[in-house]
Write a structure and sequence with these properties.
Blueprint lengths: L1 E4 L8 H13 L5 E5 L6 H13 L6 E5 L6 H10 L4 E2 L15 H10 L8 H18 L13 H4 L3 H13 L6 H14 L9 H15 L8 H8 L5 H5 L2 H8 L2 H5 L10 H8 L5 H10 L19 H6 L4 H11 L4 E6 L3 E7 L2 E5 L1
Length: 360
């Protein structure tokens, strides 16, 4: 799947996306995905850009992916379907909304009201939603909620999770009060870097450099290695063409840029790589082995789950249980203690500051 990422800048015009879509379609991928990770599409811009993506896709199926951090993704998802996009990314509450994708329940019900046939069993997904709601409540995890429209997103265009992360890290160095300065500087840095699309890793490049500029008191006095590599063109040729030439010279004129110069990668035939790693692997497994350097042994894709319930039923069996109570007591005990003994009956005694209790 080739992603075509929506962004707002003087560079990212309708003609730009028409050309990018044609280039992506020429690769004959399985699908294309029109992606709005910043939640920036409005009904007006969706009506302007979506038909262009569809018209230039050469018949390749298109997916639509949008984040809800500006409140408009549920409606824009309906527009995507109206313009002929047949695969829409959603999420199951409480993992939906906020900085995530719109709720599958909202999107499916709205699509059905518009007359679309949607092959999704919402009753089964209700069980999934209930499970994750229970996990969130027990573990004290945040849940996604519908977001309000925020015009400032069109300035810095940082993903929602990254903004909150910046606030945390600035607070750790006593500079949380400078958050707005960093966001304002992000706008300037993005312009000087040539308006990169604000997704990983480019959003981190831009945001980190903006924070460095603000906290050091001098713009580009300190520059991250990633921004130097970006200016060298190691993340694509657009930087070498679109980046502000004065800023690019400032970035590349330092000694660190000389140290980061790398020889071009060797063009190794696929057959040679297969012979080096041995085995009749699928393309997917070969790629994993190349990226991890693993030549021998069997790949284990399962994560360690020791100490965690292995099934939905096991987790539900803990509902309202002693385990849940003990977790709460453990978080509240401070300098106190509790003890638990098991026999034919169960007894629990605990001692907390200002509280003593026993139970059978």
């Amino acid at each position: 799947v080739v992603n075509i990422v929506y962004s707002v800048s003087p560079r990212h015009t309708v003609d730009y996306y028409a050309e990018r879509t044609r280039q992506a379609a020429a690769l004959r991928p399985y699908r294309l995905c029109f992606k709005d990770v910043g939640g920036l599409l409005t009904p007006e811009t969706a009506a302007e850009f979506m038909p262009v993506i569809v018209e230039n896709a050469g018949g390749i199926p298109i997916e639509f992916h949008a984040h809800s951090n500006n409140g408009m993704a549920p409606y824009v998802a309906l527009m995507a379907a109206e313009f002929g996009i047949r695969y829409i990314h959603t999420a199951v509450p409480p993992l939906a909304n906020g900085s995530s994708q719109p709720s599958v329940f909202t999107v499916v019900r709205n699509l059905r009201r518009r007359g679309f046939e949607v092959d999704v069993d919402l009753e089964r997904l209700e069980r999934v939603s209930e499970h994750f709601a229970l996990v969130a409540e027990r573990e004290g995890l945040p849940v996604g909620r519908p977001a309000e429209f925020d015009e400032s997103l069109y300035g810095h265009q940082l993903p929602g999770g990254m903004v909150s992360n910046f606030g945390y890290h600035l607070g750790q160095v006593g500079a949380r009060h400078r958050m707005q300065e960093v966001l304002d500087e992000t706008v300037a840095v993005r312009r000087e870097l040539g308006y990169p699309i604000m997704i990983t890793p480019f959003a981190q490049f831009v945001g980190t450099q903006a924070a460095l500029n603000v906290l050091t008191g001098e713009r580009y006095r300190a520059v991250s290695d990633e921004v130097i590599r970006y200016a060298m063109g190691q993340f694509g040729e657009e930087a070498t063409v679109e980046m502000d030439p004065v800023v690019r010279e400032t970035v590349l004129s330092r000694q660190r840029a000389v140290e980061l110069v790398e020889p071009p990668p060797e063009d190794v035939p696929l057959e040679t790589v297969r012979a080096e790693f041995g085995g009749d692997f699928s393309d997917e497994e070969l790629l994993v082995r190349v990226l991890t350097g693993m030549r021998d042994g069997t790949l284990d894709y399962s994560a360690s789950r020791d100490g965690y319930p292995r099934t939905y039923e096991e987790y539900r069996a803990c509902d309202g249980s002693l385990l849940d109570l003990l977790k709460k007591l453990d978080r509240a005990r401070g300098d106190g203690h509790f003890s638990l003994s098991l026999s034919l009956s169960l007894s629990l005694s605990l001692s907390l500051p200002g509280l003593t209790a026993t139970g059978m």
